[in-house]
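Hi support team,

I'm opening this ticket because the web form for multi-chain structure prediction keeps timing out on my end. I have pasted the exact lines I submitted so you can reproduce it. The total is 634 residues across two entries, so I didn't expect it to be a heavy job. Is there a limit I'm missing, or should I split the entries? Thanks in advance, R.K.
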Amino acid sequence: MSAPTISTAEPARRRRIRSERRWPRTRGGWAVLVLCTLGSLAMLVPLYVILTTALSGEDGSPGFFLTFPSEANLDSFAEAWELLHGSLLNSLQITIPAAAISCLIGSFNGYLLSKIRFRGANVLFILLLIGMFIPFQAIIIPMFQFLSTIGLQGSLVGLIVVHIIYGIPITTLVFRNYYIVVPDALMEAASLDGCGVFSTYTKVILPLSVPGFVVAGIFQTTNIWNDFLFGLIFTSPEAWPATVTLNNMIGTTTVDYSQLMAGAVLVALPTVLMYLFLGKYFVRGLTAGAVK
Amino acid sequence: MTAPPTTGLAAPERAPGRGRGPRETFKHSKHTLARARHARLLFAPSLLISFFFVYLFIGTTLYISFSNWRIGTSRDLTLQSPWWSTYSKLAEEMRFQADIRNVVVFTVLFLAVAVIAGLVAALLIHHVAVGRGLFRAVFMLPYALSFIVTGVAWRWIFNPNTGVNEILRWFGIENPPGWTTDTSILLALNNPTGAGPLKIELGIPVALIPIVLAAAWQLMGFAMAIYLAGLGSIPEEHLEAAQLDGAGVWKRLRHVVLPQLKPSTITALVLLLHVALKMFDLVVAMSGSGPGFVTDVPGIYIYDYLGSRYDKASAASMVLLVMTLVFVVPYLIRSYRRGGDS
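Hello R.K., no limit was hit. The queue was backed up. Here is the completed structure from your submission:
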């Protein structure tokens, strides 16, 4: 089957260089540019809505969702920060260790699966990958009971452990696909130098892995930061991640949309900033995570 | 876009040793065997974790769905008689029937919108002369957000009093829909009288439309990224050959580009499908269950019964699991079984 393979890198790069910074020369070319611009503007409308509503600072909500505030102010941000800062700190404390540890485990697994290729590796890999696709609703009851038994239910540590466990399949996938392109000759050289399976990993593979860690790290950071279901079920209020607290800011009877949107900005900011600065890697991680 | 990790559906490279001269195979075989044994040992912990926390836990949930366990703190592992009675009650329950209708309608509409929009965006961005990176970034940006953030934003956009309805009124539409609070069902197939086993109206709930749009807004960039990777892999010679044969833009699209994108389409559909079926956070943030359960989905049903009915929550999650695995397992086996193994 003709699926995206590594060999695609070449023509794509050539095309990019050829077409760089050249205005279209045909009517069709201009039509494509106009459509791209209009599409992008449409995609940005919800982000505009979030920002302007947050900046309106009105008590309650503006009368119309597209209104640009006459007097923009940061009052709503101050209120939202008051409600969210504890949970944002929780999210940070959950995300960093969980992402780091699941990436390390995934890197080692990916190396074993792509470079040693032991008998049965593909079947075991599929069995591992299914864990990435199950609806997590199917494991929350036993997990809740398990965490309660070992005394971690409701705590930050418990949630970190849960994120690590269910992050292993995706990080393994990303690293496996990343290491496939590492030449086998390197492995053979290491093996002739007397390196075992583990020391080949630490001496040869790990130093080559920085881009892989960036990709998998961004992917996991985004997944864990944006998680809602696990945070909702496995933590008690003092350990709530930011997504859960943000959802609780939706009142049962009235909703203060200005404050809610300011909260949304605060929760979205870390992943959006990471995306803006490391976007190239982000797209890479995404298509790697896309199994394919 | 041309990242190494997109090695994708293409089969993994062949196992070392295969396809080489017999002499080399012999030279390495003893050593390779020892390494393989060692590797299997090192892979074992992850596999054990997976078996315990994925397979054993799913088995536990399955067992609970046959048992009398209701409240989490008072464990009751005796089996119901007949053991499948929770499932038959679920099938008869109005709310669960609505959940299945909603999740099927949501998934089909969302997949159609997100995949088609993603394909169109990818085709445009692939061919745009300037600003490709910028356009790609804009279309991908919503993917960085949490479903809760997307949900609260779109809840506000479709607020019946202050949202898009203001625009519809401006265009002269007197009574715009109530969106997530609207109970009407489009294209209703039946009119349940309460006599038969079917207690809900089959059709497309209006209330799901804003949720479909919000989900498509967030994830169409994902479909686009997959299609962009696919477009990059179409050999340019094929397009040039078609052009020399006199094929115009549309003919080339239909006969060369789209057939070559089939693997990308399958990937996008399966990956977005598993997101759609387990959808929970977006609906919670946008509407919750909705009036008459018009926006309720199995994910919310399961959450609501976690406190009081372990048996029902477990059975519902098993239904959700089967719906997902029916599509995902064949896809994974097709993608990864070839090559390497044996």
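A quick check on our side: The first strand of chain B starts at residue 185 and ends at 186. Let us know if the file doesn't open in your viewer.
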